[in-house]
Amino acid sequence: YTDEYGRVKVRMNIYANQEKRDNALLERIQKDKHYLQDNPNTTNESNSTNQTRTNQENNTYKMRYSYTSFLRVASPIASNSSGFYHTPRIGDEVIISFLDN
């Protein structure tokens, strides 16, 4: 995923456990959602519960990718009048360097 500046999002291995937890939470929300749909209840409480679960699901989906920040892409050859630019694709391995630690 790139933004308007050509920056990319990167999934770091340090967050692998977090992704497993997020996926487990999404699965649990989906199961609860299907359970509520199979057992309809017409009270306002049930409707608000369904809305709350939908909001949780949307927020959890956003959280899954919120920990990956946009990073600038450096090219090995670049100047004012020549050079090349390569946008990494999904699945490409990248090297990340941290400055000003």
Automatic annotation (TrEMBL):
Residues 33-60 are annotated as: Disordered. Signal peptide: none annotated. Residues 41-60 have a biased composition (Low complexity). Residues 67-100 form the Gp5/Type VI secretion system Vgr protein OB-fold domain. It comes from Helicobacter trogontum. This is Gp5/Type VI secretion system Vgr protein OB-fold domain-containing protein.
